[in-house]
Amino acid sequence: MLETEQLTKKFKDTIAVDDVSLVLRQGESVGLLGPNGAGKSTAIAMISTLMKPSSGDVKLNGKSVLKKPGEMRRVLGVVPQKIALYEELSAYENLKFFGRLYGLSGNELEQRIDYVLELVGLADRKKELVKNYSGGMQRRVNLAAAMMHEPEVLIMDEPTVGIDPQSRNHLLETIRKLNQDEGMTVLYTSHYMEEVEKLCDRVYIMDHGKVIAEGTKEELKAILSDQETVLIDFDQSYPELFTKLSEIEGVQQATAEEHSLKLIIPKGTRLLAALFHEAERYGAQVVNVNVQTPTLEDVFLRLTGRKLRD
């Protein structure tokens, strides 16, 4: 339904997006992951026709939209990272304004406002000024505004940043309903891997402007199918030991967090014994050991060398 072909964006000597090709099939929910500076937001700006690419193409149903951006804008709803609302207006007034921009009027406009407010759970507070809403409520109105014209494709750029758990859960459930129950096509970026795990069918991973991996969640996890994740909890932090353990031959990846160390190691090796022996030499007390199948977060860390929130 929507695709990019070798999409590239240069800013003077910096290549923000480098030869990126994405495909969104109708009714899919696709995750776009990458650490800060990976090029996700620039790619979204070009897909949304808000920024012209240096080269490459954006296609809707097989036809380029670069010369006719209105065709994309009619079917596209965008929920940006930053709140895009007028704080001095109520939720109802904001939605009425955006609805009119899309050409809605009269009963059609009123019915659509009622529907999207019900969808995001704010029908009973529609007359309150947006500036008096919590951050989570504002983000829900942000989604409602993107839904006013009944878009076929919804792009969401980190829509749950900095909101309370209740609003976050409500947003995620709303997105799931739109995708799974109503068949809406979704492109979703987030700094929370669990959201992508819950919502997305396929995932693209970007780093330094390039797509470095793509596939279903199961296909991406298969990258580390011959490895396992070992989480070791200690009684306290041992920085020197953690560095030593990460340098043991065979350790593929090591991540230290407070009193814990997460390691990715090959399956069927005797590395665990070597790890425990080294910990004993340092006089470190091991509190708990958990061996598990690598997660999507582990795959991301292995491919980019950074956590998703970095």
From TrEMBL:
Subcellular location: Cell membrane
Gene Ontology, cellular component aspect: plasma membrane
Alphabetized UniProt keyword annotations: ATP-binding, Nucleotide-binding, Transport
Domain ABC transporter per the UniProt entry, residue ranges: 2-233
Keyword Cell cycle found: no
Signal peptide: none
Annotated coiled-coil segments of the chain: none
GO molecular function, one term: ATP binding
Bilayer topology: Peripheral membrane protein
Example of a GO biological process term: doxorubicin transport
Pfam families hit by this protein: ABC_tran (PF00005), DrrA1-3_C (PF13732)
Gene3D superfamilies with a match to the protein in the record: P-loop containing nucleotide triphosphate hydrolases
SUPFAM superfamilies on file: P-loop containing nucleoside triphosphate hydrolases
Assigned protein family: Belongs to the ABC transporter superfamily. Drug exporter-1 (DrugE1) (TC 3.A.1.105) family.
Official protein name in the record: Antibiotic ABC transporter ATP-binding protein
